[in-house]
Amino acid sequence: MQVKQKVYELYKGTVERVTGPRTVSAFLEKGVLSVAEFTLAGDNLVSKCPTWSWEAGDPSKKKPYLPPDKQFLVTRNVPCLRRAVSLEEEYDAEGAEVVLDDDEDGEGWLATHGVQASKAKEEEDIPSMDTLDIGKAEEIKSIPSYFGAGEKQDEEEDIPDMDTYEDTGDDSIASTQPSYFVTEEPEDDNILRTRTYDVSITYDKYYQTPRVWLTGYDESRMPLKPELVFEDISQDHARKTVTIEDHPHFLAGKHASVHPCKHAAVMKKIIDVLMSRGVEPEVDKYLFIFLKFMASVIPTIEYDYTMDFDLGSASR
Amino acid sequence: MAAKAEGRPRPLKVEAITSCVEVGFGDALRRLKLDVLGTDDSPIPITGYYTPCTHAKVSGLFRLCPESLVPSSVNSFGSRNNCPVMGTLINTNNMRGFQNLDMAHLLREEAKKILHDIMSGKIEGDPSLLLRFLVISFADLKNWKIYYNVAFPSIVFNSRMTLLSLHSASQVLSQEEATSLSKSLKEWRSSNETTVLPFFLVDISSNSSATIRQLKDLKDCQDSNQKLLFGFYDHGCHQDYPGWALRNYITFLNLRWKIEKVRFFCYREKRGGLDLQKSLIGESLFSAPNGWDDPDYVPEAIGWEGEKPGDERKEKKLKEINLESMNPASQDEEKQ
């Protein structure tokens, strides 16, 4: 497996070297992005969702076809409140999955639940493909409520690792015992298991699409073993479309990545749906649609892709 | 959602910072030791990256990453999501050296630097110096491991800091004030010049319009009858406690500007903008005792990460980064 992957990476690298970057837009026809379009869409994401930023990454891994300070996009410290596995058990009970692209490989993208399930409290945290109300030409406002609604209901849960310090002053300072620390020990069954993720988006020159990478941290902010990341990936994708690899812009560590081989096809399908409803999506909105689509693969990682503006121009 | 509206004065408690040390930092340290440091274990300046709380359920980041070890002369990394903070790294050559470090002494030395920066007026120019931090480490190159501890020094005086009140900002501000404050902070956070400054002044005039100013512009806030809040990027996400940064801030305001009663503003974000529910406005009371301004005075300090009541220093829990995935030998094994 490892060797096969290495050979493949070598092949892909060679193709990337000898072929020039895409310069002509094929966004509507093929669901792919040119380098300039990736930069444009990234700028738009950063300006609408400031939790995302452009970064340069390691200088030795700089891609010459991208601007030096805009090599990839990243949002850090994104909470992942529970495991995708537990989420899916609930969905199975609801019986409400929708296959978006069920091709012969059986690697179709899944929308994690149908519209009818979204009424339940548990589902409100989780973005769904179906509520991306693509057909309407009006402003799309449905997405922000996912985060807002979830926060209020979870408010009573404890925050883990809450060390508090009390300045008792007077007597204890000179003494050798640090008796002024007060620790709030969370109730055992009440600990919020909050993993966090750094989510980065790189440009994959071979597939001409964005590519998502995940770097996980456990509840005490120690790096998470990449294998454990699979617990936070929709089980239809774990170990199939999601692989553990070297990051194109970081020197160290192994990172989980959603393999981009199907990205263009799925994006093309979404674009077709939009077009059939009379909306021509604008290319600078690509990453918003893309991140919404990624949410079906990593349903419990609550990154920001708030969309409170038009997707594109209505042609009616 | 709202903070408990407790009115009675109580000792100020704050939420500690949990550092986030990336594998990339460990790898960069490994290479620095191999290529540059050798057996040199003298302190070197490093950079940490601080953010306010950005999500209701997790506190803000304090990261150490590969850029942390790039010398500050060439390090241009920094953005709204990565406010650079100066720190010190002491990398020892072996486990014994690491364990023999006098952690209490090292912490006091860092606290003394903070005290010096407060008194010299350096903080006004670079407020992030209030967040100065310390890392001690041992890079075990043979076993592909980095052992480390991080401290966020906070000066402790022989008198207590008292919290008089603490509320969610949404409860304290009028609608007009809240709207104006959100707008001003959005501008502050989107300007390259100010977004990396974690401490600032909030000036709310009698007509409810809010202006955000840098600490060095205090004189512009001291006329008329406006409300003055001492704002800071609060990493904490707890509704009943401000974050760690408040302690050194209060110390600064008292020692340097002789302010005993501080109205503070804990800035917290949601989706990249001000979160009025999570942000806190409170009032604290503190006056430093005599004697601290002696030039030889070495302050008491606290701040080793994870320090708990009754901890014996010798049994301090080490944190470690595993770099095994960088080991070419282990990668070869995987292939077979």
From TrEMBL, chain A:
InterPro entries: Atg3/Atg10 (IPR007135)
Gene Ontology BP, a term: autophagy of mitochondrion
GO cellular component: cytosol; phagophore assembly site
Residue ranges, compositional bias (Acidic residues): 153-170
Location of region: Disordered: 150-176
Subcellular location: Cytoplasm
Main location: cytoplasm
Pfam families registered for this protein in UniProt: Autophagy_act_C
One GO molecular-function entry: Atg8-family conjugating enzyme activity
Family: Belongs to the ATG3 family.
PANTHER family listed in its UniProt record: UBIQUITIN-LIKE-CONJUGATING ENZYME ATG3
Name assigned to this protein: Autophagy-related protein 3
Biological source species: Brachypodium distachyon
Top-level taxonomy: Eukaryota, Viridiplantae, Streptophyta, Embryophyta, Tracheophyta
